[in-house]
Design a protein that fits this description.
Strand order of the largest sheet: 6-2-1-15-14-13-12-11-7
Structural class: alpha/beta
Distance between the termini: 12 Å
CATH topology of one domain: TIM Barrel
Largest sheet: 9 strands, parallel
Bound molecules: zinc ion
Order of helices and strands: EHHEEEEHHEEEEEHEHHHEHEHHHHEHEH
Strand content: 5-15%
CATH architecture of one domain: Alpha-Beta Barrel
CATH class of one domain: Alpha Beta
Radius of gyration: 21 Å
Number of strands: 15
Number of helices: 15
Helix content: 40-55%
Shape: globular
């Protein structure tokens, strides 16, 4: 049973590594700290609220920059953009690692595989939408240079911090959310390489593109059901994407194993109900990694901004309720809740149990760690979420996240972990 927590660069820069580690270790009883190596374009906390224990910022908006002084500019046609502090040589992960080792905590760097702000010729390596437009901060896993980049990134970070484990995130295709909600971002990749590879597998790419285009257009008119032929094409496309992500993961797996026999690859995956639509094949990935965190943040709908998607796709309220109910069916989620209720309360806490159980079933002996939402949630719901994860068979917890949680929520975690370790003895 592991207990981990994710931290963002500004947590350490604003509060100091010593203080953050002390709170995580003493107050929350957590021994694994996972610092974000490259950030995302996002508001902290997301989507609302304030950073209640940060002495510098009430809210913070990050860019998709790499946050450690790691120069990868000579190896490939593109490389990740460094943040201001990183380009000045500041290394917050090193500061954290020093403080963590003094307190007996382990640091597991948290990396983003395919998504970052890039410099150089990245546009030729990015995923492309149906219309052929690049999604500029997201690499296409069909390109050999993408594989080289991800492998180099993982290897460089593990060597730099002498880390024996990494948490690899964004091993998937884009979803619809980013700086803004764009349904077109879901329907990738139609770059020339992917078109060629899909054709080679017998997929009629023009017919597929037409089917996806019709699906996007129809959803605005409340119709959401493709014809059987269209369904077959879409299933073949989704399967192609899962194979690409599995191949990328296999390349990283091979590289990590060559670094050290004890080196571990942990993945950060979408909850099992959503994962197949984003390129993540749980059974295949379970054979390649040493464990995975999934994030059934129930109050946020599993981390998926379904409400944002529905709002953009369908203008009127009745149509929105209808499309939301069809989405739940498509995802295999057995909840009889409407969009309004979902927007205010998310999914019931049982979502943590059912998603964890689905992950365990697909993974077999490979550990599944449940992401536990500790921000924007009633504090008394944290323990039921942990219990739901355990009932689903979780092998550990990833609390998300240090900076967004209130001091009260962090204090809530300590007794839960103490009770668990007491119960285990
Ligand atoms: Zn592509």
């Amino acid at each position: 049973m592991i207990a981990a927590i994710q931290v963002h660069p500004h947590d350490i820069r604003d509060e100091g590594a010593e203080r953050v580690v002390e709170i995580i270790r003493e107050k929350a009883g957590i021994t694994i700290i996972s610092p974000e190596v490259s950030a995302l374009e996002e508001r902290h906390p997301y989507p609302r609220g304030e950073l209640t224990h940060n002495p510098v910022h009430r809210t913070f908006v990050s860019a998709a920059t790499i946050e450690i002084p790691l120069d990868l500019s000579h190896a490939l046609p593109f490389y990740p953009r460094l943040s201001g502090p990183a380009s000045r040589g500041e290394d917050y992960v090193a500061d954290l690692a020093r403080a963590a080792s003094r307190s007996g905590c382990k640091v597991v760097p948290w990396l983003k595989a395919l998504n970052a702000a890039f410099e150089g010729d990245a546009v030729n390596y990015c995923v492309r939408t149906l219309e052929g437009k690049p999604v500029p901060a997201w690499l296409c896993p069909s390109k050999p240079e993408t594989l080289s980049y991800v492998v180099l990134l993982v290897k460089s970070v593990m060597e730099r911090y002498e880390a024996d484990t990494v948490l690899l995130d964004r091993v998937r295709y884009p979803d619809w959310s980013g700086a803004e909600v764009l349904p077109q971002r879901m329907l990738t990749c139609f770059c020339s390489e992917c078109r060629r590879l899909m054709s080679g597998e017998g997929i009629d790419v023009d017919a597929l593109a037409a089917a996806l285009g019709r699906l996007l257009a129809r959803s605005g008119e409340r119709e959401f059901s493709p014809e059987p032929d269209e369904l077959r094409l879409i299933a073949a496309w989704l399967s192609f994407r899962r194979k690409k992500i599995t191949s990328l993961t296999a390349a990283v797996r091979g590289e990590i194993s060559s670094l050290a026999q004890s080196a571990k690859l942990w993945l950060n995956l979408w909850p099992p109900s959503f994962a197949p639509f984003l390129g993540q094949d749980y059974p295949a990935l379970g054979r390649l990694c040493d464990g995975a965190k999934h994030f059934p943040y129930h109050r946020l709908g599993g981390g998926a901004d379904l409400k944002g998607l529905v709002d953009v796709m369908v203008p009127d309220e009745r149509g929105q309720e209808s499309i939301f109910s069809r989405m739940l069916q498509l995802l295999g989620l057995p909840y009889d809740i409407g969009l309004r209720e979902f927007a205010s309360d998310g999914f019931p806490v049982d979502f943590v149990r059912t998603e964890t159980a689905k992950g365990k079933e697909a993974f077999g002996k490979t550990p599944v760690f449940s992401g536990i939402q500790i921000w924007d949630i009633p504090e008394e719901e944290i323990e039921p979420a942990c219990k739901a994860a355990l009932a689903g068979g979780a092998d550990g917890f990833f609390f998300y996240c240090y900076g967004w949680a209130t001091p009260g929520a962090l204090s809530e975690v300590g007794p839960i972990m103490a009770n668990l370790s007491h119960g285990a003895h």
